[in-house]
Structures are given as structure tokens and as C-alpha cells.
Amino acid sequence: MLVTAAVVCVLFMLVAGALVYGNTRRTITAADYVEHTQEVLTSLRVAAQMTDRVESSAHLYLITADAGRLDQARTSVNALDSTAAHLNALISDNDQENGNAAQLASCSAELTRIINAFSPASALPEGPIQRCQQTIAMMTEQERRLLAERTTSSQRISIVSLTTDFLFVGISVLALITLFGFLLRSAELSQRTDKRILETNRDLEKSIQLLKDQAIESEMLTTSRDELQLCVNLQEVYKSAAASFSRLLPQTSGALCMLNNSHNMLETVSSWGEEIALEDCHSTESCCGLRSGQPRWREPAVSEIHCTHFGQRKPEFYVCAPVIAHGDTLGLLYIQCKDAADMESLKPRVLAKRQLLQLTGMAVASMKLRIKLENQSIRDPLTNLFNRHFMEIALERELLRATRKKSVLGVFMLDVDHFKAFNDTHGHAFGDAVLKLVAEVCQKAIRNEDFACRYGGEEFTIILPDVTPETAAMRAECIRRGIDELRAFEGKQFYGEVTVSIGVALYPEDGTTAEVLLRKADQALYRAKQQGRNQVMLAADSIFAG
């Protein structure tokens, strides 16, 4: 009996041990499959990010011709190529994915070839990028389905393992008290296995949540980039950037501050969230982040030095990050948190915040460059008045508007009297100064809707929409008197008086086309010159001053 009991105990123990071992191995294998699938999904996410970065960097390079953006595109495409090779190795045992992996490697190689030969004259490689994105999306969908299947299988194996173990424990307790020690050991092993499974599941949940957060951040950044590209002026850029930071960092308040023209003061141009402690205007030296040139996180026990751009109340938790584009500091991003918890929730989104800050800096720099180029294309560099080309466009447009509204349009032709002799006597630099003074008088004497233009040399043209003949004549006389009161000085030396002759033509009385109106105004100007200068002459031969 003892021998039989011993044999039975040994056999029972062997069977139980074999079953427990088999269950444990299947559980671990199932968990390994889940981890393998997760690794494939992570590599696919990296490939998707590299593809998006290639697209955005190449697009920004075409816009700005910045070699740094081309280097970023090449770095990203090399990373994409490496990721594609890594994916090919990971899924080599999956026949269903081998074709997709080969297709991803092919389009990655094609994209690498295009980016390595990229230049400002090249076109954005949308085709290869879209093929890469489609292949990645297809592989991601298949791997997610496989992940769900393997997760279900892992859970089922765990349940079977637990059921089998506890069953043998019950049988062992009832039938063979001698097997208690072995069953207890099996139970402990089972508990350790369960713990590993739970830890694996928790890690998996964290990974899935991280992927979701990154997908949300990526979508936010894409939306923000598209919104910034739609802006047509700096105020829209500032407003759009504040809205984007508010969506990305919902637990915070903050503001965007930009440098003024003298680059010694920061002015708040947009904000989000609740009331912030930041002053609307402060010097550049008041911010530790600007002085260091790096983002600065201020929180107790980490940094006790405060910036000085606050009022009486100083917050305990805030971040100051310089807004930089093309190596130039444009302003400051200020982020304020209520407490330490909000500060901690901000840290996982540092990368997304940095990317959005870069997009904002590039949008501001691009908009300022665009405004500068537009001003250069329509402004006379000496007087800052509109140039002749813009005058011709504006005159045609105002004539069409006057025709629709059946209103009167005034056109002035101004010429500085004796300017050539004055210029030859005192020099071109002094002559340029006189032209600037005349331009300032013209600007101050007209309305916001009027157009003061430099026609060429010492001649100026002024367009006055929606005026009466009397108002036009009075406005011309006002300009003449204002210039007549000018005195040309250099230091304490008096060089003479400055006067102008003005010819006035009116639509539709004196003409209905731009060519005719300019000719009539010029003829009136010529008559004013002939009859003594320093006077206003209407196209209808009326002299208003002299």
C-alpha cells in the first residue's frame, strides 16, 4: 500500500507538475507573442512619425530653402529606412505581412533616393509618402487585429491554467495529504505566473494609452500646422497659436509674448486659460528663460529663482520658453500651472509642446517676412509712400468702385517747385530729406482711405475716393499750405523754402479712365507751374492759392 501510494503520489505529482509546467509555458509564450506584436506596432508608429517628419521637413524646405530642414528630412528618411528593415526582420515569420513589409521597404528606398537628391526646385514627393503611409496604415490594422487575437488567447490560457491548478489542489487536499507540499509549491508558481501576466497586461495598457496620447498629440499638431498656414496676418497667427496651446495643454494658462521693434521689450499678443500673473509688457532681461536661451521650468525645490515679469503675485509653477526661428529669438511662450500635479501632467507632452512652439516660431517668422516683402513690393523705400505700380492698380480699382457707387474720385499730381536746382545746389542727400518731409505732410493731410504715392522723382500722386469737388480742392490747398510752411534746414543753416504745385482732376467730370485723369491732373500741374508755382490748379482752370 505504501509503495502503491508512493508510486501514485509520484505519478500524480509528475502529472500535476507536467500540467502546471505546460500551462506556464503556454502563458509565457502567449505573453511573448503579445509583446512581439506590441513591438511591431511601436515600430510602425515610428515609421509613421518618420514619414510625417519627412513630409513636413521637405515641405518647410521648399518654403524656406533652409538647409537644416533638408537635413532633418534626410535624417528622418534614413530612420524610416532603418525602421522598415527592422519591421521586415520582426515579421519575417508572418506570411501575410511579408508583402506589406517588402512594399514599405520599396517605397522607403524610393523616398530615400528622392530626398537625397532633393533641391529647392524639386516637387514634394507626395506619391511615395502616400504609399508609405497607406502601407503603414494597412500593416498597423493587421497587427492590431493580431494583437486582439493574441490578447484573447493569452487570457484564455491564463483561465485554463488557473482552473487546472486549483482543481489539482482540491483533489490533492481531498485524496492525498502527502501531495500538499507539492501542490502548495505549484500554487506559489501559479501566483508568480499570474503576477507576471498582470504586470504584462498593465504594461500593455500603459503602452496602448501612450500610443493613444501620441496619436492625439500628432492630430493636434497637424491641425495646428494647418490652421497656422491659413493665417493671413500676425494677429491671426498669435490667436491660432494660443488656441493650439490651449488644446494641447488644457490644464494650464499661458500667453504668447513677442519682441517689439526695438527688441528690448516683450508685449503680450495672445493668451489662453484663466487669468495669468504675467505683466502685459516687460523687458527681455526680466525673463530667465530668455536670458538662458532655453526653456526654463520653475517649481519649488527645483528652482527657487523667479522671473521678474510678474505683478505683485508670483506663481509657483510656470515654464518660460523662447520662441526661436532661423536662429533668431522672436518672443516668449509663458505657461502657468495651478499646482504640482498640473506641472507633472505637462511633462509628458514636452515634445509636442516643443514641436508646436517650433511651428509657431516658423509661422511668425514667415508672416513677418511675407509682410516685409509685400511692403517692399508696394512701397517706395525713400518716402514709404505707395509706389507707382501700386498707384496704377489702386486707381483702376477705385475708378471701378466710383463707377458702381456713382461717386466723385479725386486725383492730385504734386511736384516740388525748383527741386532740380535745389537738389543740384545742396546735394542729393539733402534733396532726399526734403522729399521725406513732403511725404510726411501728404500722409498727415489725407484720410485713412486715401492713397499717397510717389509717382517718380519729385512728383507725387494722391488718390481721394468718394469726395466732393469742394472737399478735393480744400484738401489740395491744405497740403499746399502744409508744405509751404516747411523750412529746409541742415543743422542751423537755412537752405530755403519748400513749395509745391498741385494739379487736381476729378472723376467723372474730367475723365473716366485712369490715363485721362492722370493726364488732366498733369496738365493742371503744368499750368500751375506756368502761372507762378506754389498753387493748386483744377483741371477746370480754377486757381485756389498762390
Which whole number gives the mean pLDDT?
84
Radius of gyration: 39 Å
Q: Please give the number of β-strands.
A: 13
Which descriptor suits the 3D outline?
elongated
Helix content: 55-70%
Q: Stretches where pLDDT falls below 50 for ≥5 residues?
A: 490-494, 542-546
Count of helical regions: 14
Provide the spatial order of strands within the biggest beta sheet.
3-2-1-6-5-4
Quaternary assembly: single chain
Alpha-carbon distance between the two ends: 142 Å
Give the tally of structural domains. Answer: 3
Major pleated sheet: 6 strands, antiparallel
Write the H/E string, N to C: HHHHHHEEEHEEEHHHEHHEEHEEEHE
Strand content: 5-15%
Structural class: alpha+beta
Fold and architecture overview:
- The chain has 546 residues and is α+β, with helices and mostly antiparallel strands.
- The protein has three domains: 226 residues; 130 residues, GAF domain (Beta-Lactamase); 151 residues, Alpha-Beta Plaits (2-Layer Sandwich), CATH 3.30.70.
- 63% of the residues lie in helices and 15% in strands.
- The strands form three sheets. The chain has a six-stranded antiparallel beta sheet. A five-stranded mixed beta sheet has the order 8-9-7-12-13, sandwiched between helices. Strands 10-11 form a two-stranded antiparallel ribbon.
- Helix 2 packs antiparallel against helix 3.
- The radius of gyration is 39 Å and the shape is elongated.
- The C terminus is likely disordered.
